[in-house]
Amino acid sequence: MRLKKTYGSREVAALTGLTARQLQRWDADGLLPPAIRPHRTAAGGYTERRYTPIDLFELLVLADLRRRGFSIHQLHATVRALKEQFETRLFEATGGGSGVQLLTDGQDLYARTTTGEFFNLLKSPTQPLLVVGNEGLLKELGGKIKPRRRRPFTV
What we know:
By secondary structure, this protein is of the alpha+beta class. It has a single domain (7-39, 47-140), classed as Multidrug-efflux Transporter Regulator, Chain: A, Domain 2. 34% of the residues lie in helices and 16% in strands. The chain has five helices and seven strands. The chain has helices spanning 9-16, 20-29, 53-67, 72-86, 90-93; strands at 7-8, 50-51, 100-104, 109-113, 118-120, 124-129, 139-140. A five-stranded antiparallel beta sheet has the order 6-5-4-3-7. It has a two-stranded antiparallel sheet with strand order 1-2. Strand 5 (118-120) and strand 6 (124-129) form a beta hairpin. The longest helix is centred in the middle third of the chain and has 15 residues, at 53-67. The chain is elongated, with a radius of gyration of 17 Å. The mean pLDDT is 85.
């Protein structure tokens, strides 16, 4: 896939499996606003939301977390904790070269720093955890494009 400068809502929906309504809601709620917000045109309509490749990657991660059962509230808490506690974006914590790595055990979301500290982003993002035992149960998060299957056209 060739990267473009921006992607429209329909392209993002097709690449992430999210619906246009979810994208609209996530924008309105401040979870992940587009790089270019829609605005009114002279003809009375609206322009399309436009997302950067980094926005697309972050939406892929958020969509994956939703499919894993994490709530919208938990996604907000994760994005907020990464921003406020670690001064990093979701993209950077999921492979973008940050000093923080986002991990999950399927029930909680964790941040691991380059110094080896662990933080539970959903319960106590400012309190480091004491890690005992095998951290192999945690899985690193990243975005993967899973194109939707197209239904056969019938008449």
